[in-house]
């Protein structure tokens, strides 16, 4: 018999039983107050830190296509972190096969807090992928302090958490570094074409064309940009009754008689990170959210209203951001293929040299309307996920001194975003109409591809 074992009398047995009960309650109490179990971490932590990435983009004046790319890889890191810690094959349902093979991720150590790792890895990618990304180091440090203070994990395991978050971010950055972005500066510089009807820089800053070779960036889902090429724009013509001349007059007439609601709509969806105002000889940059940033904000609002858990929140944000990225790649190819003149340039030259649009004309060709394309793609994806007639209040641009706006559905929001380009005087009607069609085709294609991957992954489980 081992030396510590002995026979108890009834009194000893009662004492022992009582001691066991006390110890059990103590253990149970400690377990409820243990690291990672103290309280549920709200998805607002993710939404708020994603906005910190948006703030850096605004600081950098990231172009709309580049901003979408930054969102895609940052949210992908968070999604992969969560999936790996939970030993979930969800990323196989999201990522195309062509990219899955490039991600051979090692298993995480046990006991990691998935919410912390997801957010930290997202910030880590943001830090490394954006020009001013180092601004996020302060947010990362605050996140670590908050995690230890709230007992999401022990101070002793902090290094382990950081190591895995940085590992995931590193793998995602390897993927990003092969998408063609680093080669953009080596490509032939764009020069405006000579001749009537082609794009050329617009006032007041007369900025050079933005991202003329964005077509070379690898999409996530689209395999052939030509498959989503829109119908050609109306041929340039000043002949009365021609499609182009009719649309030219429409922009001039509509913008000359806008009511208060139309002006509000134009400004609400402006999303122009390049706006410049002059005071004497001094140029002042007015920084705004990008179109993609606006729809990422809407995704966060919908996720919180619907009460999504972390798994669902990370998934839908990643899917929307990838959709934005692909939509911009497709749209930007068409912009520089058609290379069409902006309404401001045409109206000033052929109708009224003193006319100015409500919105400042962005520095790239007109056709198709980028906001029409990406808004429609986003609305298609969000409607499929949250359902039609999902009412929400869009507060995405309150930070930029614009009011909240209520919408009965994502499709209605996208339709308003599209027509805002006419009210703003920066797009012709056919660029808006065909942009919406282009966005629908891209959104539906992504959903078909995702559903096929989900079906395949479910069969393999």
Description:
Keywords: Membrane, Transmembrane, Transmembrane helix. With 461 residues, the protein is mainly α. The chain has 2 domains: 44-181, Vanadium-containing Chloroperoxidase, domain 1 (Up-down Bundle), CATH 1.20.144; 195-460, Vanadium-containing Chloroperoxidase, domain 2, CATH 1.10.606.20. Helices cover 56% and strands 3% of the residues. A two-stranded antiparallel ribbon has the order 1-2. A two-stranded antiparallel sheet has the order 3-4. Strand 1 and strand 2 (282-285) form a beta hairpin. Helix 12 (310-338) packs antiparallel against helix 14 and helix 14 runs antiparallel to helix 15. It is elongated, with a radius of gyration of 26 Å. The two termini are 50 Å apart. 44% of the residues are buried. The model is unreliable at 1-38 (pLDDT under 50).
Sum this structure up briefly.
Helices cover 56% and strands 3% of the residues. The protein is mainly alpha-helical and 461 residues long.
Residue share in β-strands: under 5%
Main structural class: mainly alpha
Strand order of the largest sheet: 1-2
CATH architectural arrangement of the largest domain: Orthogonal Bundle
Global morphology: elongated
Using only C-alpha atoms, the radius of gyration works out to 26 Å
Query: N-to-C terminal Cα separation, in Å?
Result: 50 Å
Uncertain ranges:
1-38
CATH topology category name of the largest domain: Vanadium-containing Chloroperoxidase, domain 2
Number of E strands: 4
What is the N-to-C succession of helices and strands?
HHHHHHHHHHEEHHHHEEHH
Largest sheet: 2 strands, antiparallel
Fraction of residues in helices?
Answer: 55-70%
Q: What is the subunit arrangement here?
A: single chain
What count of structural domains? 2
Number of helices: 16
CATH class of the largest domain: Mainly Alpha
- How would you state the average pLDDT, rounded? 88
């Amino acid at each position: 018999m081992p030396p510590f074992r002995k026979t108890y009398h009834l009194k000893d047995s009662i004492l022992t039983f009582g001691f066991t009960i006390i110890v059990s309650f103590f253990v149970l109490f400690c377990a409820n107050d243990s690291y990672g179990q103290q309280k549920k971490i709200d998805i607002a932590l993710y939404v708020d830190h994603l906005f910190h990435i948006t703030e850096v983009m605004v600081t950098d004046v990231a172009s709309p296509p580049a901003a979408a790319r930054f969102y895609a890889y940052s949210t992908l890191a968070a999604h992969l972190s969560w999936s790996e810690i939970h030993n979930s094959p969800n990323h196989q349902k999201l990522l195309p096969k062509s990219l899955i093979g490039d991600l051979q991720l090692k298993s995480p150590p046990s006991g990691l807090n998935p919410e912390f790792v997801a957010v930290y890895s997202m910030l880590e990618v943001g830090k490394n992928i954006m020009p001013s990304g180092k601004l996020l180091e302060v947010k990362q440090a605050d996140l670590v302090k908050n995690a230890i203070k709230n007992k999401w994990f022990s101070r002793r395991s902090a290094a382990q958490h950081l190591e895995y978050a940085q590992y995931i971010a590193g793998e995602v950055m390897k993927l990003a570094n092969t998408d063609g972005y680093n080669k953009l500066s080596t490509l032939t510089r764009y020069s405006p074409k000579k001749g009537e009807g082609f794009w050329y820089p617009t006032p007041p800053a007369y900025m050079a064309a933005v991202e003329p070779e964005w077509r070379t960036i690898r999409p996530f889902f689209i395999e052939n940009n030509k498959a989503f090429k829109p119908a050609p724009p109306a041929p340039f013509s000043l002949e009365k009754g021609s499609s182009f001349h009719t649309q030219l007059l429409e922009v001039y007439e509509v913008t000359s008689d806008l009511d208060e609601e139309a002006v509000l709509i134009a400004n609400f969806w402006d999303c122009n990170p390049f706006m410049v105002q002059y005071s004497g000889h001094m140029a002042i940059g007015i920084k705004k959210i990008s179109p993609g940033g606006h729809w990422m904000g809407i995704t966060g609002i919908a996720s919180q209203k619907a009460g999504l858990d972390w798994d669902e929140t990370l998934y839908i944000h990643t899917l929307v951001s990838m959709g934005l990225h692909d939509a911009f790649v497709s749209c930007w190819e068409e912009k520089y293929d058609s290379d069409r003149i902006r309404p401001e340039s045409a109206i000033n030259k052929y109708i009224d040299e003193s006319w100015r649009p409500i919105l400042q004309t962005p520095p790239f060709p007109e056709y198709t309307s980028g906001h029409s394309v990406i808004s429609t793609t986003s609305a298609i994806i969000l409607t499929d996920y949250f359902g039609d007639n999902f009412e929400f209040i869009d507060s995405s641009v309150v930070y930029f001194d614009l009011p909240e706006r209520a919408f009965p559905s994502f499709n209605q929001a996208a339709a308003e975003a599209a027509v805002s380009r006419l009210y703003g005087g920066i797009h012709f009607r056919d660029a808006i109409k065909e942009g919406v069609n282009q966005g629908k085709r891209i959104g539906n294609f992504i959903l078909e591809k995702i559903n096929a991957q989900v079906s395949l992954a479910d069969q393999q489980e």
